[in-house]
Amino acid sequence: MRQLIVAAAFAALTALPQIAAAEDHEAGVPLTPAEAAGAWTLDAGERPACVLTLGAQKVAAGYAVKAGSDCGAILPGAPAAWQPTADGMRFVGADGQALIGFNRWSNSLFVSHRSSGVDVHLRRGPPGS
Prior knowledge:
Elements: H1 2-24, H2 33-36, E1 38-44, E2 50-59, E3 62-67, E4 81-85, E5 88-92, E6 98-104, E7 109-112, E8 120-124
């Protein structure tokens, strides 16, 4: 009986870190517009970071986005909107075509793997936060 109690206690204690980690790990969970609203930092390799502001307001091609003028060094075009996807989000141009897609890694980190080998990171908050 004592062994059963010890085994149950051990199982419960080892499960706690996994439960806590699951609350912050949102990989593969769709992003909601309300959840995305606010400032995000975009960076890639040695390029300077830029700030994007995602909105929850519906626009023709998705949801509102404002990109800083310095984002052109990282983005393959000017985003007109952002769209949630099954596993993250993407920015689209004025023609509705995808510019760049991101996979959700956590509550505050999205990553786009590029063929150049330099990943593009989209992090919640302004640079340095």
